[in-house]
């Protein structure tokens, strides 16, 4: 018997970052939108805990116990006093170290899959608690849709969304480390007064209306200057997408994936074509959101 769970990537339509806290994290006002790029995690009983991975970026994924899917299985097993001996297979389509929460997605998916396999009877809140211990983005990968994350980004409030938003994503030729981007944010902000992060009411209204023009006017990412500082070539990718008609162009989370909000699938195709032709990125994908969080796809 095995269980397969499908889990989406995310884009941050607002990422407001406060000053560094004493624990090294930053308080956020983090507006997440789940988008239709998916990983699938399949869990099967085995003699020992083992992780395998397939997909274009598979060689970049650690297969030891640092893999967030393995850590999720271990955390759930420890909670229920059972052995974590399973085979976790990750079919990976979400870019690795791309700022789209790929590792977090696998953590949430493995948790849901093991929970179904082991029939633990854990409540949703218990699962969300384990997710928050695994990483700041992991709870959102479980719930999907759209949500405002405060604290480290792990304290979620679901958000209403009035329609589908269409996106183009450009993957860069190398990844960026999330802690390195937060450190660069701190360095760039040295000596300045960094305000407490607050969600934009205009942005929440744009999401609720399903209005792409209003959303384009309000998207923001406080980590973008830090990501551009570490990866200056991204400025060219952003400019290419804007020139091709994207309503908004921004770095996704800690980057280096760049995200382009477009009006409809036709304009997504045009922006994607321009990005491919420009040679300023590794691969280009189109997607839409919101889409549900980690969901059992097959038993
Ligand atoms: C950039 C985002 O992807 C936006 O959604 C997230 O804030 C990052 O979430 P994540 O990858 O799950 O991050 P975690 O695994 O919790 O933390 C990795 C590292 O990122 C930094 N970090 C993360 C979240 C946060 N609110 N403040 C931080 O400063 C810390 O250096 C931390 O050690
Ligand atoms: N299942 C996993 N898939 C990918 N990377 C993983 C996984 N588990 C652990 N990692 C490690 O996490 C690092 C960051 O990978 P990930 O793809 O989650 O980055 P990210 O999308 O930038 O994350 P985020 O958007 O949450 O900041 C990788 O370089 C890898 O070493």
From TrEMBL:
Which Pfam families does the record match to this protein? GHMP_kinases_C (PF08544), GHMP_kinases_N (PF00288)
Cite the binding residues for ATP: 95-105
| One GO term (biological process) | isopentenyl diphosphate biosynthetic process, methylerythritol 4-phosphate pathway
Q: Which reaction does it catalyse?
A: 4-CDP-2-C-methyl-D-erythritol + ATP = 4-CDP-2-C-methyl-D-erythritol 2-phosphate + ADP + H(+)
| InterPro entries attached to this UniProt entry | GHMP_kinase_C_dom, GHMP_kinase_C_sf, GHMP_kinase_N_dom, IspE, Ribosomal_Su5_D2-typ_SF, Ribsml_uS5_D2-typ_fold_subgr
Which E.C. number(s) belong to this protein?
2.7.1.148
Residues annotated as the enzyme's active site: 10, 137
Q: Does the keyword Kinase apply?
A: yes
Question: Under which pathway is this protein filed?
Answer: Isoprenoid biosynthesis; isopentenyl diphosphate biosynthesis via DXP pathway; isopentenyl diphosphate from 1-deoxy-D-xylulose 5-phosphate: step 3/6
Q: Where is the GHMP kinase N-terminal domain?
A: 67-145
Where would I find the GHMP kinase C-terminal domain in this sequence?
A: 203-276
Q: Does the keyword Translocase apply?
A: no
Q: What class of enzyme is it?
A: transferase
Instruction: Alphabetically list the UniProt keywords.
Output: ATP-binding, Isoprene biosynthesis, Kinase, Nucleotide-binding, Transferase
GO molecular function: any one?
ATP binding
In UniProt terms, what function does this protein have? Catalyzes the phosphorylation of the position 2 hydroxy group of 4-diphosphocytidyl-2C-methyl-D-erythritol.
PANTHER family, from UniProt? 4-DIPHOSPHOCYTIDYL-2-C-METHYL-D-ERYTHRITOL KINASE, CHLOROPLASTIC (PTHR43527)
Name the family.
Answer: Belongs to the GHMP kinase family. IspE subfamily.
Protein name per UniProt: 4-diphosphocytidyl-2-C-methyl-D-erythritol kinase
The protein's organism comes out as: Streptomyces violarus
GN (gene name): ispE
């Amino acid at each position: 018997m095995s269980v397969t769970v499908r889990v989406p990537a995310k884009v941050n339509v607002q990422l407001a970052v406060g000053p560094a806290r004493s624990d090294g994290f930053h308080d956020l006002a983090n507006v997440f939108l789940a988008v239709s790029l998916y990983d699938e995690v399949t869990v099967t009983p085995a003699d020992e805990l083992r992780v395998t991975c397939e997909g274009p970026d598979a060689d970049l994924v650690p297969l030891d116990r640092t893999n967030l899917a393995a850590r999720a299985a271990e955390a759930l097993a420890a909670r229920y006093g059972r052995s974590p001996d399973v085979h976790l297979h990750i079919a990976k389509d979400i870019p690795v170290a791309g700022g789209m929460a790929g590792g977090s997605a696998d953590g949430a998916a493995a948790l849901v899959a093991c929970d179904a396999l082991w029939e633990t009877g854990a409540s949703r809140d218990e699962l969300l608690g384990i997710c928050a211990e695994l990483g700041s983005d992991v709870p959102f990968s479980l719930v999907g849709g759209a949500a405002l994350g405060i604290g480290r980004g792990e304290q979620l409030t679901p958000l209403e969304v009035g329609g589908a938003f269409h996106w183009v994503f450009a993957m860069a030729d190398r990844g960026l480390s999330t802690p390195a981007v937060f450190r660069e944010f701190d360095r760039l902000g040295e000596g300045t007064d960094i305000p407490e992060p607050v969600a934009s009411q205009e942005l929440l209204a744009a999401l609720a209306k399903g209005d792409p023009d209003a959303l384009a006017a309000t998207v923001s990412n406080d980590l973008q200057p830090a990501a551009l500082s570490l990866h200056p070539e991204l400025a060219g990718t952003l400019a290419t997408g804007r020139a091709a008609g994207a309503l908004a162009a921004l770095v996704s989370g800690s980057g280096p994936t760049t995200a382009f909000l477009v009006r409809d699938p036709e304009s997504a195709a045009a922006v994607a074509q321009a990005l491919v032709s420009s040679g300023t990125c590794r691969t280009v994908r189109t997607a839409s959101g919101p889409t549900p969080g980690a969901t059992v796809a097959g038993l």
